[in-house]
Amino acid sequence: MDLKELYRDVILDHNRHPRNFGRLESEDRGGEVLHADGHNPLCGDRLSVYVRLNGERIEDIRFEGSGCAISTASASLMTEAVKGKERAAVARLFDQVHRLLTHHDATPDAALGKLAALSGVHEFPARVKCATLSWHTLNAALEHGSATVSTE
Ligand code: ZN
User: Fold this and answer.
1) What's the CA-to-centroid distance between 33 and ligand 1, angstroms?
2) How much is the pTM?
3) Domains of the chain
4) Fewest Cβ atoms nearer than 10 Å: which of 58, 104, 131, 148?
């Protein structure tokens, strides 16, 4: 199996079986839940991201919504990647992911882990917004506590 097939399998797997799917309720274990809704009108992807912080660290994160395979897989991979990380580390990770999605010469950094599976998206510029929607929505939740973002 070559790398492209491996990446495709990761995307398909995370689309069929999204990790951390659902919502977080504030009353679960105390602690305020930040939440934002994201919409990508180009494709019709809609998702909501729920985050619980412990200081600067993302203690828990979930998402729900409906969209194309890329948007769902990207959101699923994102939740796995950022859980337990500090906000500053999450911002750096998004920079790396964004570069991976938009630069043909970008080779996945080892720090990206499974997020490297999104590297094939750069071949389809129209799908970049599908892949970044969950990240923009996460940023909106972290910055504003409750917000709605659109990729337009
Ligand atoms: Zn999409």
Assistant:
1) 26
2) 0.91
3) 3-143 (3.90.1010.10)
4) 104
